[in-house]
Amino acid sequence: MNITNDIITSYIKTLYRSDNPKLMELREFAEEKHIPVILRETESLLLSILKIKKPGHILEIGSAVGYSACCFADGCGCTVTTIESDEETYEAARVNVSELGFAGQVNVLKGDAREVMPAIAAANGGEEIFDVVFIDAAKSHYRTFWDMALPMCRNNALVICDNVLMKGMTASDQYDPGKRYKTSIRKMREFIKYITHLGYADTCVLPVGDGVSVSVIDKEAYLREQGKGGCDDE
């Protein structure tokens, strides 16, 4: 189900274009096989944001088949560290990253992000290394992913979360008549309320794709809130 008017969504999709034929081939394959990749309108939004932000290093939580990581690397020339928990999907991502020519920019890590992120932090001596964090994994763990990623974010970093409207279910229970996703809906609502009320983050929620939240992090305010003092701007 589209979360906005179907006619408008269909029109927006006709505007999509990709300048990379190999990436377009991977997208079309994934769509044909119903493999989850970022929606076309979501990709267009994110690439525009990234071209404005000009990040050096992105952390992606949820690689899937590696499409979005390659898309980010291709679109803004950054490096991407991406984490995937599923063995089969991880292998597909690793192969795709290599075959698409992004092995020098995209590092695919296997494991539960809740275990991998502390290892990334330790390997970098606790330094702030990420300009953008893209969360697109298990929806019930978004709050945990957010909290674990923040210490590794630089000042004015962006934290972008995909699928936050969950096909409309976050906005209204009427989109989950069988109550199948009751727990996930509750956790997503709690997460959205949390990030939109933080003193150190300016957050907007956009009805693009399946819902995207974009947060700008004031790291100095974050550190004060954590009782760790301030930080210097980049």
Strand order of the largest sheet: 3-2-1-4-5-7-6
Q: What is the helical fraction, as a range of percent?
A: 40-55%
Largest sheet: 7 strands, mixed
Estimated share of beta-strand residues? 15-25%
Could you tell me the number of beta strands? Answer: 7
Overall pLDDT metric = 94
Please report the number of helical segments.
9
Q: What integer value in Å does the Rg equal? A: 17 Å
Q: Give the CA-based shape.
A: globular
N-to-C CA distance: 42 Å
Q: What sequence of helices (H) and strands (E) makes up the elements?
A: HHHEHEHEHEHEHEEH
Summarize the topology.
Layout: H1 6-14, H2 21-32, H3 40-53, E1 57-61, H4 67-76, E2 79-84, H5 87-99, E3 106-110, H6 113-123, E4 130-135, H7 142-149, E5 153-162, H8 182-195, E6 201-206, E7 212-217, H9 219-225
Parallel strand pairs: 1-2, 1-4, 2-3, 4-5
Antiparallel strand pairs: 5-7, 6-7
